[in-house]
Amino acid sequence: MPAHIIFLTLFAALLHASWNALLRSGTDRLWSMTIMCVTIAVTCGVIALFLPLPDFASAKYAVLSALLHVGYNLCLIRSYQSGDLGQTYPIARGSSPLMVTCGAALFAGEKIAFNTLVGIALISGGILMLAMRSRKLAIPGLKYPLATGAFIAAYSVVDGIGVRVSGNSFSYTVWMSDVMGSTDASALYRPARHEKFTALRPGLLSAAAGGVVSLLAYGMIIYAMVAAPMGAVSALRETSVLFAAVLGYLFLGETLTLRKMLACAVIATGTLLIG
Fold first, then answer.
1. Does the global pTM surpass 0.85?
2. Angle at Cα 162 formed by Cα 210 and Cα 73, nearest 5°?
């Protein structure tokens, strides 16, 4: 992988962990997620005015990705209701790179070098180690983090294919995110409409900022998938669990144990193999 793609993906991982920490720290995560989606839709709607249209061949991928993001966001919220950031986040993110690799090979004809495949496996294994407690996965709602990982893999492969036929990675990102933000905001608003959902709240600016950060982070990932294998990009993106573990320790009162640090070393080894 080119060096600038590696650094760009790792920076996107940091941004991704940051908005997940913002979401996890909120008291009403459904409301926060909806505000994030509204912010994404409005921001992309404005940016789209200054960009050319992506190739029409990518439209079906943008729509499918938007629908998959609805399932991802709903599963992510349920995941955070059943465990802390240091557990649910690694399970969701760690289960996706190998699925992305298989999906890219099956649907996009990608071939992965052996050292890259080993690196992906190490990163996934290290990430899942972060979710272990006393050699067991101690999360009652394990199905939601795993479902989240499946949605991540699905929309990653769809976007990886879509951006490659779009003719312009920035245009594809903006239009896909605009459809995704609008669709997600509508889907998430319905279960919360019985509350005073539109009332101003203290966390409004934080949620809106999280939306901008998430848009920037995923835009970097989509750009990276044009120039590098989807599985490798996905694995490097999921190193965001390292940043999530640190953020959870510093700001959310979560523990950073020796086992977690060993898992981080495994992830770092996998990253070096990919690079």
1. no
2. 35
